[in-house]
Design brief:
CATH topology of the largest domain: Beta-Lactamase
Low-confidence stretches: none
Helix content: 55-70%
Mean pLDDT: 78
Structural class: alpha+beta
Strand content: 15-25%
Largest sheet: 5 strands, mixed
Number of domains: 3
Strand order of the largest sheet: 2-1-5-4-3
Length: 470
């Protein structure tokens, strides 16, 4: 199960979501922590400034008018209202009386910080108050009489407003709880979505795998899943369906080929065997009849040789073990030679057989194989052209290419058969070996050219061999 695609897809998806959520949580926590710290410092600065201004006015009145110190409950009320703790460091400002401010010594806040305060500057620091273990964040604000603000002398002391760092950290707990809840909900939603999507992906893949096993066993009529949409899985299912169809078609073609070849081989072999038996037994004594029997044997032997040669040529082309010669080929002479092969056959069937040579190029190619291609195209044209029809053979050259076109007035080829016409063993009527056009196309490719086909039902066909002129 753990190695299956159904498990690994959602697992990887969730791992990515979890990693992304963890990174986002860490970043959010850091940002909120910085925001909380900055806000706390700003509030402490504002409170320190306000409380220092309040006590500065009271200190001025105490010094100028001999007023008593502010009552202690004032400091307690200020602490209760702000939630922070108030301290005082420096020389006593009020003679007599308790102000309620907690006392700090210079050593407790540090001499370096005191020197900064003495220069009438606000200082931020962390310290642990006397008789306490809680670390606090504090702001020290100089305290001086109001009238001394413009003087250059040291302040009277400093008001220190501090807040517990534990309380600051406590403000992060609700954020962590909400982030954890949001993370858990997100993971659950992502898990459900990943499981659903992985099911949609792997379900047709598993069915395709099962179908592939059936195809491997030779059962090509398997039921394939209908995958909706236009994604890669749908393309895979369609490609697999096309593959199964072609395999079934190829098997049927090979079966028909074997039956056809068996028939094609049996017919000349039967004729050869009959004539040989007659000659061997001495039944044929007339020299003319004997010569005719020998002609039949020679003709049927050539037919066998041609059939076996076609099969061997196709095998060599499929295995890429085909040798191509490079020689100067007079295309006009070669076309004349191919044209002459079917001259008598055209007369016997009353076919209007024409040749048109517009150029006389000489190319560097394999002359025998070019002749074989043209002969195969002409043989196919005469096979499908009815008696009294027309077959044209034309040679031309332009734009660095030579063209040999074979056009007939046969029944034509439908659009659905244009792709299959060059496949081995496939024939339109189920007769013959179906090797001629397949060999012609493979030879054309081996010679650096191609065969183009233009055909429509009822209008005949035009096969055009195109080869490079150079």
């Amino acid at each position: 199960m753990f190695r299956s695609l159904r498990f690994r897809l959602p697992a990887l998806f969730l791992a990515g979501i979890a990693l992304t959520g963890l990174v986002a949580t860490v970043i959010a926590f850091g940002l909120f922590q910085d925001y909380t710290g900055d806000r706390a410092v700003k509030e402490l600065r504002r409170e320190a400034a306000g409380i220092a201004a309040l006590y500065s006015k009271q200190a001025e009145r105490a010094l100028d008018e001999d007023r008593p110190a502010p009552p202690p409950f004032q400091a307690r009320e200020l602490e209760r209202a702000s939630g922070n703790r108030l301290f005082f460091v420096g020389v006593p400002v009020f003679l007599g009386g308790d102000t309620g401010l907690r006392k700090l010594t210079i050593n407790q806040i540090g001499e370096e910080r005191w020197r900064v305060l003495a220069r009438r500057r606000i200082v931020q620091f962390e310290f642990t108050p006397p008789n306490s273990t809680a670390e606090m964040l504090a702001i020290g604000h100089p305290l001086y009489a109001v009238s001394d603000k413009t003087n250059e002398g040291p302040p009277l002391g400093a008001i220190v407003v501090a807040t517990s760092k534990t309380e600051l950290r406590g403000q992060l707990v609700p954020l962590l709880e909400r982030l954890a809840a949001a993370f858990a909900v997100g993971v659950l939603i992502a898990a459900g979505l990943a499981w659903y999507l992985s099911g949609r992906i792997t379900r047709p893949v598993r069915r395709l795998a099962k179908a592939a096993d059936e195809v491997a066993e030779g059962r090509y009529d398997v039921a394939l899943p209908d995958v909706s949409g236009r994604d890669e899985i749908a393309d895979l299912a369609e490609s697999f369906r096309e593959m199964a169809r072609r395999l079934a078609e190829s098997e049927e073609l090979e079966r028909n080929f074997l039956m056809t070849v068996s028939h094609e081989l049996r017919t000349p072999l039967t004729a050869i065997r009959g004539h040989v038996e007659a000659l061997r037994e001495g039944f044929v004594e007339d020299p003319a009849i004997r010569a005719a029997s020998l002609d039949v044997i020679a003709s049927e032997g050539a037919r066998l040789e041609r059939l076996v040669g076609e099969v061997l040529d196709l095998a060599k082309l499929d295995a890429r073990r085909f040798t191509v010669l490079h020689e100067e080929v007079d295309m006009a002479r070669l076309v004349d030679q191919a044209y002459a092969v079917f001259g008598e056959h055209a007369k016997e069937r009353g076919i209007d057989y024409r040749q048109e040579v517009e150029a006389k190029p000489v190319i560097l190619s394999d002359g025998d194989r070019v002749l074989q291609i043209i002969t195969n195209l002409l043989a196919n044209a005469f096979r499908w052209t009815p008696d009294g029809g027309r077959v044209d053979l034309a040679l031309s050259a332009e734009n660095g290419r030579i063209s040999v076109a074979v056009e007939d007035t046969g029944p034509g080829i439908g659009a659905e058969e244009l792709e299959r016409i060059f496949r081995p063993f496939w024939t339109h009527d189920g007769k013959g070996t179906g090797l001629g056009l397949a060999i012609a196309r493979e030879l054309a490719v081996a010679l650096g050219g191609e065969i183009e086909l233009d055909s429509k039902i009822g209008r005949g066909s035009r096969f055009e061999l195109i080869l490079p002129l150079g």
